[in-house]
Design brief:
- The complex is a heterodimer of chains A (about 110) and B (about 110).
- Chain A is mainly beta and about 110 residues long.
- Chain A is built from no helices and eleven strands.
- In chain A, the strands form two sheets. In chain A, strands 2, 4, 5, 9, 10 and 11 form a six-stranded mixed sheet that branches. In chain A, strands 1-3-8-7-6 form a five-stranded antiparallel sheet, with no helix packed on it.
- In chain B, strand 8 and strand 9 form a beta hairpin.
- Chain B is globular, with a radius of gyration of 13 Å.
- The chains are: A mainly beta (about 110), B mainly beta (about 110).
- At the A-B interface, strand 4, strand 5, strand 9 and strand 10 of A face strand 4, strand 5 and strand 9 of B.
Chain lengths: ~110, ~110
């Protein structure tokens, strides 16, 4: 039962342009959402999070948008840089519950 | 250390052997998680420890899998009688608590069962 879904396994973007990574979830009880970035042979590193009381959170080049009615979140990277090339995972959890549910990841390739 | 540390980084074992994977969480983090990532898949939850509470073992795929956390710090994931389908990257993460804080991951242990 995949409660968090990333339907695009890969995305290719030109350097300097916007990257938009999408994530859908099915459990309306989720109230905390995160994005992680993973390079090969490394563990995932935390990128940005958003609580369900917000619909947008921004940190430098990274912005996460949450649409609760659509059960959809997205990560925008502007401008994209070659160093952003990695696999991006979205994750969701319920307040005071213990599990983070992860999507299957989207591999982003930023072309110079 | 400053981050989550896992050992070994790579492990090749023969089918049927037992393996132990170790995780040293970030000092002071009360929550500890084990996930695994099979080839081409997302992160699959295995087990969660929070303080002195009973662990959430709901993600363990079979009774061949077990985990301990001693003294609220170091954790060991044990896989008995390994099978080829156990081959994956096993990731450990820790967080400050379980109240909507991000988890920090180690670099993972790549387990290959031959």
């Amino acid at each position: 039962d995949q409660q968090v879904k990333q339907n695009s396994p890969s995305l290719s973007v030109q350097e300097g342009r916007i990257s938009i990574l999408n994530c859908d979830y099915t459990n309306s009880m989720f109230d905390y959402f995160l994005w992680y970035k993973k390079y090969p042979a490394e563990g995932p590193t935390f990128l940005i999070s958003i609580s369900s009381i917000k619909d947008k959170n921004e940190d430098g080049r990274f912005t996460v948008f949450l649409n609760k009615s659509a059960k959809h979140l997205s990560l925008h990277i502007v401008p994209s840089q070659p160093g952003d090339s990695a696999v991006y995972f979205c994750a969701a959890s319920r307040y005071s519950f213990n599990k983070f549910y992860f999507g299957s990841g989207t591999k982003l390739n930023v072309k110079p | 250390g400053a981050g989550v540390s896992q050992s070994p980084s790579n492990k090749v074992t023969e089918k049927g052997k037992d393996v132990e994977l170790r995780c040293d969480p970030i000092s002071g983090h009360t929550a500890l998680y084990w996930y695994r990532q099979s080839l081409g898949q997302g992160l699959e939850f295995l087990i969660y420890f929070q303080g002195n509470s009973a662990p959430d073992k709901s993600g363990l795929p079979s009774d061949r899998f077990s985990a301990e956390r001693t003294g609220g710090s170091v954790s060991t994931l044990t896989i008995q009688r390994t099978q080829q389908e156990d081959s994956a990257v096993y990731l450990c993460a820790s967080s400050l608590d379980n109240m909507n804080t991000e988890a920090f991951f180690g670099q993972g242990t790549r387990l290959t069962v031959v």
